[in-house]
Design goal:
The radius of gyration is 16 Å and the shape is globular. By secondary structure, the chain is an alpha/beta fold. Strands 1, 2, 3, 4, 5 and 6 form a six-stranded parallel β-sheet that branches. It is 38% helix and 15% strand. The protein is built from six helices and six strands; from the N terminus they run E-H-E-H-H-E-H-E-H-E-E-H. The longest helix has 24 residues.
């Protein structure tokens, strides 16, 4: 019997509590419910130094790269800061240059689901930034994305998600990433039939 696919979530913010980390954990629940093994890598827990190519590779960056490379699929989550991802998130993906010499390199053959939380209404800007990064690292962006605007309206002060419809969409993203990973394992590629694509942007709330 084939072992389950591994879906690794990476993200959150350096603040506590973190709505983007809470949203990531809900999406990971969806992946687990769809049959995946799961792991969450909180950026605040990794304690990564700033990326610089001139110095050696710190243990935290090696651990990040090894975990990402071992995953079948990824879920990425970042808060939206000034129209893009957070500095901590960008620093983490900069360290993934370690994967250049792996076989296959970078994020090859890995579906990546993307989500973000925003205090305002511009969450898709961070999604677009993540999409550019995924493509640069040779990954496959899952078309379903979840941008949660006005996060104070759907998370309580302790970053607990209080809106069941948002939770259902986040879990749906986790399930879709798992489906894509299983198709990659079986067929070496991933496609989306008509009707599979749907709007995951929680705008207009």
């Amino acid at each position: 019997m084939a072992h389950p696919v591994l879906v690794v979530g990476m993200g959150g913010s350096l603040r506590t509590p973190s709505t983007s980390l809470a949203a990531l954990r809900v999406a990971i629940e969806g992946a687990a419910a769809a049959g995946a093994d799961t792991e969450v890598m909180s950026l605040s827990g990794l304690d990564l130094p700033f990326y610089t190519p001139e110095h050696g590779i710190p243990p935290a960056a090696r651990f990040l790269a090894d975990t990402i490379h071992g995953a079948d699929a990824l879920l990425w989550s970042s808060p939206t800061y000034h129209g893009s991802v957070s500095g901590a998130f960008k620093n983490a993906v900069d360290w993934l240059t370690i994967l250049a010499d792996r076989d296959p390199p970078y994020l090859s053959n890995k579906p990546v689901g993307m989500l973000t939380t925003a205090g305002g209404v511009q969450g898709l800007q961070a999604i677009n930034s993540m999409d550019f990064i995924v493509r640069a690292l040779r990954g496959w962006s899952v078309p379903l994305v979840i941008a949660v605007p006005r996060s104070t309206q759907v998370f309580d002060p302790d970053a607990n998600l209080t809106d069941p419809s948002v939770a259902a969409q986040l879990r749906g993203l986790g399930a879709e990433v798992t489906r894509a990973a299983l198709q990659f394992r079986a067929e070496g590629t991933c496609d989306y039939a008509e009707g599979q694509l749907h709007d995951g942007v929680l705008g207009g709330r």
